[in-house]
Amino acid sequence: MKIIVLPGDGIGPETMATTVEVLEAVSRRFDLGLELIHDIAGHESLKRHGSTVTPALLEKVRAADGLMLGPMATYDFKDEARGEINPSKFFRKSLDLYANIRPARTYPGMPARLGEFDLVVVRENTEGFYADRNIESGSSEMLITPDVVISLRRITRLCCERIARSAFELAMTRDKHVSIVHKANVLKIADGMFIDICHEVGQEFREVRVDDFIVDAMMAHVVRAPQRFDVIVTTNMFGDILSDLTAELSGSLGLGGSLNAGSEHAMGQAAHGSAPDIAGQNIANPFSLILSAGMLLGWYGQRKGLQSFLDANAAIEKTAAAAVAAHEATRDVGGTLGTRETGAAFVARLLSA
Ligand code: NAD
Questions:
Q1: What's the number of domains the chain is made of?
Q2: Tell me: the pLDDT tens digits for 37-73?
Q3: 254: CA distance to ligand 1 center in Å?
């Protein structure tokens, strides 16, 4: 499996360096034959190539079997005409990575303030309120006068159907429960359609229990009793916000692994951003990116029918759980180690299992 590795900005280089060590170790242990191809995106690429991402890089990614994208300083990238392209958007849109899968679970050994839970947010990734990806060319956010802005939201049957199917298929491998999160009391037409399509797709999965929640109320429900939920399916922006909340409720945003998957390509990417407040201090939690790398291996294993890749993902998840329980982790999850030391301990544990 060929994986393009792009470290990114802020805490990206340090967390990706650790993730690369884990990928190399898991490749040795499970004989995966991983080939890691290192390249750049974000500020480093802007400096060197005049653009945060390039068409040549996209071609390399298309030709590879997967992509590991480090956190990006997307807020810094404001003007596409000056090469400041949001790399997340670039890959999600160009590769049609429509399903953003964001698991959140508690771990033994860490205080679970809200009780134990294990859920997955399945977020639509290619339309919704995201002005940089919901139209073919340009942006759907418009400055009408200096004091008036219009931002358009796009919801389509195709995108609703495919994200609903991802959610129900995932639920069939878990507790067979899908919760639809929406704002159909206000966005009556678009979110009304989203709910209807989720239920339509749900008809194909009769064993799966379905319920739905208005997004604002969902914030209260998930904080009150996260164990009520199994798979949560929602549109782009609601999923982005909700999944940061669920990651933090699980103990830390630094545990938020995620996969962006389409029908042909996939990208592992931590749920969080470049965390400039802690960058370069060797304190960032690398587990989010390590777990994302595991998910990418799992995606490939499922696609190609390769058990060794599924085993590698399971071993990464198991090692993360054991490391958290043993406090062999960064301080945000109750450990005392730095990013590098957390990675070294992770590799030792992975190889000794
Ligand atoms: P952030 O997600 O980077 O950080 C939020 C908080 O969580 C910070 O206190 C940070 O220190 C902490 N945190 C994040 N990751 C952590 C980790 N691995 N270990 C320990 N603590 C961690 O959000 P922000 O500071 O608002 O955004 C910073 C930049 O990241 C902005 O440019 C934003 O646009 C960008 N961003 C990018 C992505 C992405 O690449 N997918 C996602 C979100 C934000």
A1: 2
A2: 999 999 999 999 999 999 999 999 999 999 999 999 9
A3: 9
